[in-house]
Design brief:
The chain is an alpha/beta fold. It contains eight helices and ten strands. A four-stranded parallel beta sheet has the order 2-1-5-6. A four-stranded parallel beta sheet has the order 8-7-9-10, sandwiched between helices. A two-stranded antiparallel ribbon has the order 3-4. The longest helix is centred in the middle third of the chain and has 17 residues, at 70-86. The protein starts with a strand and ends in a 5-residue tail after the last helix.
Length: 225
């Protein structure tokens, strides 16, 4: 099986792939394509969000964090999908939890944002959902994103790329103190180590997108290709 992974940053996402592939649970070749591949620092700066833009936070190949506007990378994301389709992958996964409603593929495509928004109400029909974002500037868009669940929302910002364990523990405590029943780490950059920190500090169940994505892809492995 060959899986194509599209990232909104630069590929390869060496920070994501080990845990994704471990969760996958089946042998698979992974081909990656990034929306920012081949761009200079100056060109990436030109993709920065302006007022009203849908903000995305991602990782460069050197590990640095960058912010881009979804509208300004959409065509490059589409190009990545076309490149992976041409390579003959059996399945495409998005290494991003952002919303890309207009992104289409002839190949089956897994979108973490849709997986999360459908999974969470299946776990919890009512209650308080804690959502951890990479940036406080994303709070308005994330409230809209999660409104369809009908759950009460508590949002916290802590970047998986620049945050520290102290930041994560503080965010977890605040969510627990405000009555969060379940926590979603809403960025593909969050790691299993970070998930353990949130779980230990809050005492609540925590959903990690990269391993959720891997497990669903693994479930599909026998159905595609």
């Amino acid at each position: 099986m060959t899986i194509g992974a599209v990232t909104i940053g630069q590929s390869p996402r060496v920070d994501v792939t080990p845990e994704f592939q471990a969760a996958l649970g089946v042998p698979a070749e992974l081909l990656q394509c990034g929306a920012l591949d081949g761009l200079s620092a100056e060109e990436v700066e030109g993709l920065a969000p302006g007022p009203g833009d849908y903000l995305l936070v991602t990782r460069m190949r050197d590990g640095g964090e960058v912010r881009v506007a979804e509208a300004r990378i959409h065509e490059r994301m589409r190009g990545c999908v076309e490149t992976l389709e041409a390579a003959g992958v059996d399945l495409i996964v998005l290494f991003c939890t952002g919303e890309f409603p207009e992104l289409r593929s002839r190949t089956p495509i897994l979108r973490p944002d849709l997986l999360l928004k459908r999974l969470v109400p299946g776990i919890m029909e009512r209650g308080r959902l804690g959502v951890v974002l990479p940036s406080a500037d994303q709070k308005e868009s994330q409230r809209k994103k999660w409104a369809s669940t009908g759950l009460d929302l508590e949002l916290e910002a802590a970047s998986p790329y620049t945050g520290t364990e102290t930041d994560f523990r503080a965010a977890a405590r605040r969510l627990a103190s405000r009555g969060a029943d379940l926590i979603v780490l809403d960025c593909i950059g969050f790691t299993e180590r970070m998930k353990r920190v949130f779980r230990e500090e809050s005492g609540k169940p925590v959903i990690l997108p990269r391993t959720l994505l891997g497990r669903v892809a693994g479930e599909l492995a026998g159905c595609v290709g």
